[in-house]
């Protein structure tokens, strides 16, 4: 009896020990597995992003080129259309005035017209040369005002926000909707020339580098095809954030935040420069905007410490807490109290 009881106790103890070991392995092993999964996910995200190689002649100046750069934003395409249309209008007006001058020179010189006309008024002519310029100016004003309105239309509430800060002489890009990390962007040094930024590599050392004086170590990465709210300010002096191929230019003023919407229609790398004289190295303050499809943008975000994917689709609100148990009715409480008192009295008797 004693031996059997002892054996049973040992068996129960061994079973309890086995359960304890299993629970310990489940807790700590599960945590390790979760950490391994997170590390693998981060590694996959890091491996999913490679800087984009720029296309020559796209999003950058071209030697000997004339006119505007090819535009890759809706406002840029509209602005370029207005620009080209106004060139034709100005050209036709100048040609018309030139023809009038030549006609006057040829037909109304001293030899061809020795007796000048004494006409002092011509009502039809005066009405035409007054109303026609007015109509031309109205035709120019309507699309111009429309372009200004499009450029400063407020961003939608769901737009991604990026904060751009100008510094002497580099840019910083903050991503408050993606975990509030910050990217510091410096111009790459040029081989064979004096070092501009200490500790920064030389242009051409990576296969995705663009032209010198324009390429940077860390680009401003944005998702393509989405409205982006750019909030621009400066830390020291006035700068200007300008990217010609995106029709974007906005001053960065210390102590003030200027806001404008940016939409990039096509994946690519687009270059610009600070467009406000800001000190000795003003010419070494380029801008590089890399527009990526949303999956690649999310992968880029996850390569940064603390980076999270912005929640464009809001999470469903939490279910309301269950209602508290209904309190007993006053009448029922009174009846229960009276019954208890009656029972106590009967017991006493």
Automatic annotation (TrEMBL):
Cofactors required: Cu cation
Catalytic activity: 4 Fe(II)-[cytochrome c] + O2 + 8 H(+)(in) = 4 Fe(III)-[cytochrome c] + 2 H2O + 4 H(+)(out)
Source organism superkingdom: Bacteria
Enzyme Commission number, as recorded: 7.1.1.9
Alphabetic keyword roster: Copper, Electron transport, Membrane, Metal-binding, Respiratory chain, Signal, Translocase, Transmembrane, Transmembrane helix, Transport
Membrane topology summary: Multi-pass membrane protein
Compartments where located: Cell membrane; Membrane
PROSITE patterns (UniProt xref): COX2, COX2_CUA, COX2_TM
Co-factor remark: Binds a copper A center.
Range of residues in the leader sequence: 1-25
Keyword Signal: yes
Region of interest called Disordered, as start-end residue ranges on this chain: 324-349
Keyword rRNA processing: no
Principal place of residence: membrane
Broadest EC class assigned to this enzyme: translocase
Domain Cytochrome oxidase subunit II copper A binding: start-end pairs: 157-303
Stretches that traverse the bilayer: 86-106, 127-149
Residue ranges annotated for the Cytochrome oxidase subunit II transmembrane region profile domain, each copy included: 60-155
Family: Belongs to the cytochrome c oxidase subunit 2 family.
Role noted for this protein: Subunits I and II form the functional core of the enzyme complex. Electrons originating in cytochrome c are transferred via heme a and Cu(A) to the binuclear center formed by heme a3 and Cu(B).
The protein, known as: Cytochrome c oxidase subunit 2
Organism of origin: Novosphingobium clariflavum
Gene name, Swiss-Prot/TrEMBL: coxB
């Amino acid at each position: 009896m004693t031996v059997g009881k002892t054996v049973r106790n040992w068996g129960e103890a061994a079973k309890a020990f086995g359960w304890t070991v299993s629970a310990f392995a489940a807790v700590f092993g599960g945590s390790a597995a979760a950490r391994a999964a997170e590390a693998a996910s981060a590694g996959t995200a890091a491996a999913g992003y490679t800087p984009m190689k720029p296309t020559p002649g796209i999003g950058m100046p071209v030697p000997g080129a004339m006119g505007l750069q090819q535009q890759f934003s809706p406002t840029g395409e509209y602005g370029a259309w207005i620009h080209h249309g106004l060139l034709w209008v100005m050209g036709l007006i100048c040609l018309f005035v030139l023809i009038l001058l030549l006609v006057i020179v040829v037909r109304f010189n001293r030899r061809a017209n020795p007796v000048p006309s004494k006409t002092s008024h011509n009502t039809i002519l005066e009405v035409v040369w007054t109303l026609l310029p007015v109509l031309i100016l109205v035709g120019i004003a309507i699309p111009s005002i429309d372009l200004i309105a499009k450029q400063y239309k407020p961003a939608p509430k769901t737009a991604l926000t990026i904060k751009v800060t100008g510094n002497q002489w580099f840019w910083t890009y903050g991503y408050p909707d993606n975990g509030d990390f910050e990217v510091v962007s410096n111009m790459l040094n040029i081989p064979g020339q004096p070092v501009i930024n200490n500790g920064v590599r030389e242009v051409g050392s990576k296969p995705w580098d663009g032209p010198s004086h324009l390429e940077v170590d860390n680009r401003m990465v944005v998702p393509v095809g989405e409205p982006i709210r750019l909030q621009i300010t400066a830390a020291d002096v006035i700068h200007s954030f300008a990217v010609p191929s995106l029709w974007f230019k906005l001053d960065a003023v210390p102590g003030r935040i200027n806001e404008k919407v940016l939409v990039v229609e096509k994946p690519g790398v687009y270059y610009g420069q600070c467009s406000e004289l800001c000190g000795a190295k003003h010419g070494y303050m380029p801008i590089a905007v890399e527009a990526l499809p949303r999956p690649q943008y999310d992968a880029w975000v996850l390569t940064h410490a603390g980076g999270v994917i912005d929640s464009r689709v809001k999470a469903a609100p939490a279910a309301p807490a269950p209602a508290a148990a209904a309190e007993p009715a006053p009448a029922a409480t009174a009846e229960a109290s009276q019954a208890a008192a009656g029972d106590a009295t009967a017991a006493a008797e």
